[in-house]
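Need residues for this backbone.
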């Protein structure tokens, strides 16, 4: 029995608005679909033809799920929703490439207080654009209206993705050896981590997202919504290169927990590395926010990426070629440390994170100007 739409509308749920949002996003979603996707948009489940995996000797499925944290509050505050979708894809898909996996499919979930079709379509179009850029098929999603739980202009987004990697090409600590080089890949900004601290600093200083900052060259809201950089396709292309791919031993996505903790997660237990602060200068937005909050850059290392979005751990003889290839693909990269297995005490080091007993990492030196 179908529920009377007018009765549901009295409770604050507008199913017709949801249908309009789907129509607005359909073409963008379709652009992410290759011949492997079956059924199109609107089914109860997304379908992906996995027969291509027959070419793998031992395919391992990689999966990841995430959201974008309180960055959505800034998007809502300045009514700009066309980039938050890229943030979601970056948080999810760039975790999958860390193990060397190629992303296959992604689904999204949007919970909101009120379905505004144009807003929902903006969010999903951003997801679709980023999925297209990373070679990921957006095969399904859900928009849920939660009146009474969320305000009319509030929403949250989450996503999940699945990828595949050949077992003997799996990246991780098991490949890392003494003398490997740690390569830093530049971030575009905060990406999608540490925004609770950002918002706390701005609130304590009575700064509005619509306020203009001369130091940053724009309004705070615009600068803070800089989309998360997508590393998946450039890294997959290098991994597939017969000359360079074998030299990559591990990758680390610098997300929640900051620089040292995330690098430590992909180093083998007993190994260590020192990240050289003198090798880069944190972006102006990091410097400005730490100064505004009365903090030091060093004190923010456990919350913000400070300009490093990903690490590549590679053999010393392949490091230069990998850096040159990344720079050619528009991702500024540089050597920032080396891995050692020599015995030492780990005072002042961070060891592992998120339940992983990995290696030990600390940052040394002073940041470049």
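Answer:
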């Amino acid at each position: 029995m179908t529920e009377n739409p007018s009765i549901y509308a009295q409770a604050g749920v507008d199913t017709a608005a949801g249908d309009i949002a789907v129509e607005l996003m359909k073409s963008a979603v379709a652009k992410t679909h290759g011949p492997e996707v079956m059924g199109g948009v609107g089914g109860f489940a997304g379908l992906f033809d996995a027969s291509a995996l027959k070419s793998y000797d031992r395919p391992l499925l990689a999966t990841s799920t995430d959201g974008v944290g309180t960055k959505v509050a800034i998007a809502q505050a300045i009514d700009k929703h066309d980039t938050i979708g890229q943030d979601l894809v970056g948080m999810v898909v760039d975790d999958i490439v860390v193990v060397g996996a190629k992303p296959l499919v992604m689904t999204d979930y949007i919970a909101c207080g009120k379905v505004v079709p144009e807003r929902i379509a903006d969010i999903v179009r951003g997801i679709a654009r980023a999925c297209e850029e990373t070679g990921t098929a957006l095969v399904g999603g859900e928009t849920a209206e939660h009146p009474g739980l969320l305000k009319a202009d509030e929403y949250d987004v989450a996503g999940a993705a699945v990828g595949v990697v050949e077992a003997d090409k799996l990246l991780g600590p098991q490949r890392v050896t003494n003398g490997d080089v740690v390569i830093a890949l530049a971030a575009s900004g905060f990406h999608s981590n540490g925004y609770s601290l950002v918002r706390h600093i701005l609130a304590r200083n009575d700064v509005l997202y619509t306020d203009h900052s001369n130091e940053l060259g724009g309004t705070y809201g615009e600068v803070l919504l800089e989309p998360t950089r997508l590393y998946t396709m450039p890294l997959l292309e290098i991994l597939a290169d017969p000359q360079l791919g074998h030299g990559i031993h591990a990758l680390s996505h610098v997300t929640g927990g900051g620089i040292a903790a995330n690098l430590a997660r992909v180093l083998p237990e007993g190994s260590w590395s020192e990240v050289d602060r003198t090798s880069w200068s944190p972006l102006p937005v990091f410097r400005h926010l730490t100064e505004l909050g009365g903090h030091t850059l060093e004190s923010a290392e456990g919350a913000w990426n400070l300009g490093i979005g990903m690490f590549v751990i590679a053999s010393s003889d392949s490091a230069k070629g990998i850096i040159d290839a990344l720079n050619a693909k528009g991702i500024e990269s540089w050597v920032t440390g080396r891995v050692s297995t020599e015995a030492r005490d780990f005072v002042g080091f961070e060891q592992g994170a998120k339940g992983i007993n990995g290696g030990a990492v600390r940052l040394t030196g002073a940041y470049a100007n």
